[in-house]
Amino acid sequence: MIAHQDEPLPHIDLDKVFVPQVEYRPSPEKVTSISVDVMSVRGATAAGVKGSEMNVLYDSELMAIVHRYKTKSTGLVETTLWSWQGRRSQMGEREERKLTDMARHYGTKLCAVRQGCEPPELVHALGGQLATRQGTRSHWSAENTTMHQVRSVHGQILIDEHDLHVSNLCSAFSYCLTLLGTCYVWHGKGSLPEERQAAFGYAQYLSAEGTSPLELVEQESDDNEMFWTLLGDADYANADYWKWRPTSVTVLPRIWRVDALSPPHLTTVPALSMQPNVDSSVYLIDCIWELFALVGMKARGSRQDIRLALSAAMDLSSRNEADRPFKPPIHVLVLPSKLPLDLRLHFRDVDEEQMVGVFFFFSRDLSQLRETPLRMERLPQKT
Predict the structure, then answer these.
(1) First-residue to last-residue Cα distance in the chain
(2) Nearest C-alpha neighbor of 57 from the set 144, 140, 151, 124
(3) Are strands 174-179 and 182-187 parallel, antiparallel or unpaired?
(4) What residues contact 157, with CB distance under 8 A and at least 6 apart?
(5) Global pTM value
(6) What is the pLDDT of residues 129-144, one digit of tens each?
(7) 3-class SS at 293?
(8) How far, in Å, CA of 292 to CA of 311, rounded?
């Protein structure tokens, strides 16, 4: 056992940190939309996307989205310009210059957005629904073998194409799968009514003319041998707690970066993929029905940060117990590590290949440690 002399943890007003989540709601009484332009940026050119494809973006693309609107209180016309970068796209110097020129032309600043981190204002400008797909716009076909996840966030519908594999299936959501000429719609036990409706509508769009999607419901009507054979027989994200999602007041996960030395000590993080040094930091992750202290590979020696993350997690678990079916358990996840499936699929932007390497998973229910000393010597130490 390694002897440690722990310093006192900093005082934090957790009432201000753990404030209730506020869902985005558009304000039509304040803003009137005038126009939305969606353009594909390549080199020094920007080509417009028209019609029903405006709210469909591909992971190989770099896009510019221009929203012009009138603020009713002032009567002034304003413009928001977003640059959207797909996971597999590349932005060179010419593309950067083009986007800078566009911002200058429209008299506004450029708001950079990465795939999976789209703000609700952007999705609202695109009509309240956004679909992302793999590949290129010119070669993508509804006849491809595909897997699309459908989730509702802030009352908006987000549809993301995934690699066809059972590890990308999650009981929380609805899915559309096109397999061997058949379009399946699978509803997880935690999927919301609006997700089920949107998934079926999207499946109808993908289905061949004259055919109808085959609808399956988890644990009710999904005993379809072909469906599971094509997905594979490995585990999928089917935690029992997803059954509580349709009746839960809160369904959006949250992340804080933990820094015991620098105020405010717990800082809200909109998305892990937007963090430049995940491997050097400690994070507290609220997945509604379970909590995680995520320790970056280079942060394993950050003893105070880890202690603070666990202390805050135990406080949050106790706070959440009143409006959850059970007290959320707490786990410690030390990178590099294989991410638990349910944790990964809570978020749209988590790319496991970028975050983890060799499998190492330290996990135990720490929610009962309020009355006992934290046994930090069990955590891997920095070498």
Answers:
(1) 16
(2) 140
(3) antiparallel
(4) 128, 129, 130, 150, 151, 194, 195, 198
(5) 0.90
(6) 999 999 999 999 888 8
(7) strand
(8) 12
Return d(Cα 223, Cα 206) in angstroms, integer.
23
Band (pLDDT 50/70/90 cuts) for residue 153 is very high
Q: Which amino acid is at 345?
A: L
Collapsing DSSP states into helix, strand and coil, what is residue 149?
strand
Residues 6+ apart with CB under 8 A from 186: 169, 174, 175, 177, 216, 217, 218, 222, 227
Give the tens place of pLDDT for each residue, 169-215: 999 999 999 988 899 999 999 999 999 999 999 999 999 888 899 99
Residue 331, token pair as written in the block: 């786990």
pLDDT tens for 47-75 read 999 888 999 999 999 999 999 999 888 88
Q: Please give the torsion angle defined by the CA atoms of residues 240, 286, 190 and 184, in that order, rounded to the nearest 10 degrees.
A: -110
Q: Is residue 260 exposed (0-12), middle (13-18) or buried (19+ Cβ within 10 Å)?
A: buried
- Tokens representing 189 are 């036990």
Q: Phi, psi at residue 353, to the nearest 5°?
A: -65, -30
What's the pLDDT tens digit per position in 290-306? Answer: 999 999 999 999 999 99
The two three-digit tokens of residue 226, written as one number: 């072909």
> Residue 209 is encoded by which pair of tokens?
């003319």
Neighbours of 110 (CB within 10 A): 17
Q: How far is CA 132 from the centre of its chain?
A: 13
* CA–CA distance, 133 with 49 (Å, rounded to integer): 15
By the 10 Å C-beta count (0-12 exposed, 13-18 middle, 19+ buried), 244 is classed as: middle
